[in-house]
Amino acid sequence: MLSHTVITLGGVIPVYSISSFTSGACDMGLFLSAYRNRLDRKGRLSVPAPFRAALGEGAAGVVMFKSLQHDALEACAISHLERLSDSLDQQKLSPETYELVEATIFGGSQWLTFDGEGRISLPENLRHFAGLADEVVFVGRRQTFQLWNPSRFEAIETTMREKAKARDISLSQIIAGVRGGT
């Protein structure tokens, strides 16, 4: 399951390939954990090394768009949006839903390239939408990751944990294919 490791000044970071867990249709790693980084005055932000590694070897940047559910940003590899596009073609969505997804996700996506230090330049409209100023919390979401204002993330994380407890969600139930709560 271990695809490769990334060696950093802080040690070795294991990187797991999704193809280890699926049929091999995807070579992107999982976005795991949460990190906090500073946003500089020019709007530049260092993407955590494990997230850059999860994007795949030689990734030149990341696709970013406004979250549909939260006042946060979503980011992923271009290959993830290609899979989303393919899956839209296979589904029977209402014309309105199809239009909403195309306009908000595809029309609202921005390609952000990495500089030599692994930073991206966040456009002002994205920073404003997510309320990003000095610090940003990166949150892994398997095939995507989110960028949050730290205080907003703290509040939503608390709410999500309370909801998970109320629904009695457990990993063993999920693995076994049984869902707790409704």
Beta strand %: 25-35%
Structural class: alpha+beta
The N- and C-terminal alpha carbons lie at a distance of 32 Å
**Number of extended strands:** 10
Q: Report the biggest beta sheet as strand number plus sense, adding barrel if it closes.
A: 6 strands, antiparallel
The helix fraction, in percent, is: 25-40%
What topology, given as strand order, has the largest sheet? Answer: 3-9-10-6-5-7
On the 0-100 scale, what is the average pLDDT? Answer: 83
Reading the helices and strands in chain order gives EEEEHEEHHEEHEEHH
Low-pLDDT residue intervals, each spanning 5 or more residues: 1-26
Radius of gyration: 17 Å
The global form is: globular
Number of discrete helical segments:
6
Give the secondary structure arrangement, pairings included:
Elements: E1 2-8, E2 11-16, E3 34-38, E4 44-46, H1 49-54, E5 61-66, E6 73-76, H2 78-90, H3 95-106, E7 110-113, E8 119-121, H4 124-130, E9 135-141, E10 144-148, H5 150-166, H6 171-176
Antiparallel strand pairs: 1-2, 3-9, 4-8, 5-6, 5-7, 6-10, 9-10
Model description:
18% of the residues are buried. The protein has 182 residues and is α+β, with helices and mostly antiparallel strands. A hairpin with a 2-residue loop joins strand 1 (2-8) and strand 2 (11-16). Strands 3-9-10-6-5-7 form a six-stranded antiparallel β-sheet. Strands 1-2 form a two-stranded antiparallel ribbon. A two-stranded antiparallel ribbon has the order 4-8. It starts with a strand and ends in a 6-residue tail after the last helix. It is 34% helix and 27% strand. It has helices at 49-54, 78-90, 95-106, 124-130, 150-166, 171-176, and strands spanning 2-8, 11-16, 34-38, 44-46, 61-66, 73-76, 110-113, 119-121, 135-141, 144-148. The protein is globular and about 45 Å long. The chain is built from six helices and ten strands, in the order ββββαββααββαββαα.
